[in-house]
Amino acid sequence: MAFKSFFRFFTKLFRGKRDIKLGFYGPPNAGKTSLANRICKDFTGEQIGSVSKVPHETRSVQFKEEVNIEHKGKSLKFKMIDTPGISTKIDYEDFMKYKIKKKEAKSRAKEATEGIVESIKWLNDMDVVVIVLDSTENPYNQVNITIIGNMVARKIPVLIVANKIDLKKAKMKKIQEAFPEYRVVGISAKYGKNLDEFYDAVFDLSKEV
Amino acid sequence: MSKKRKFKNIKGFSIQFLPFSEIKNLGSEERVSKILRIVRDKILILQGRINAEEETRLIERSMQMIGKNNNFKGIELAVISSDGKKGFFGKMKKGIVNALSGGELSAISIIGPATIVKDIKRNPKKLELLLNK
After folding, report:
1. Chain B residues close to A145, C-beta within 8 Å
2. Of A202, A139, A203, which is closest to residue B121 (Cα–Cα)?
């Protein structure tokens, strides 16, 4: 324990005042950009990216530098990294269900595959990762388990966020049962619900960086 | 003269079982390559599981294959393992067994091409494979 504290002290000393890289990961349409937007808007007045009901709206990694989050009298500076949703399959025909024309659907599908590859490449470069899950969906998705497994292998602190708790179908308990070894915070990025607990958790995890 | 059978071609699928011993001595990249070769057109049932980093590499490489290979739209994958609330000693025992056997042999991985496997519904106790018509 003493060694761990000593190690952390030296890591912080040499890291200096570098921004903490806070990554938002998860499956498509879970609300990663909505949450990142909510934080960025609250502390910088600007958004990080656009949101849509169409999956894979975020198809390249988006950044917001120097986001100074102030919470309960403390302040930490983050580099926010919003990543495209990770999935194991992309079919352009799925985009056509949202009245997108074939040519554009194919182009979106191509960009979405490239976005997933980019998301995966960024895994190595995070300090803290927030995994955003849709609390109305089944959490036992292999992609979620794979992402968390990668964080564990890389010793990156992880926070699981169960988003969309404002919806009737939300099953926060199911997410807690699926990931009993992790801190799970239920929020609504859309309505800004329970963000205090979210910031508590992010500040706690940032101590481990 | 016998009548010609008028059966239409039935779109079938193959399932291949792969014992872990077949990939045990391969490097990560070779393991992923071997799995990808199979799951282009077959459902793979793998004894054991590859590690999380290899799973990520599998997703990454399958994304790179979309658009380059005709009709390949990615994969569906699911793993069921005996992970449970085992406590410290249970986990330690499992870790030793895994280290000796070279992988988590008590797990089963199912990986299939998205063109055949529509979805894999999973909960802690069961896996349900939904196939495309």
Report:
1. 52, 79
2. A139
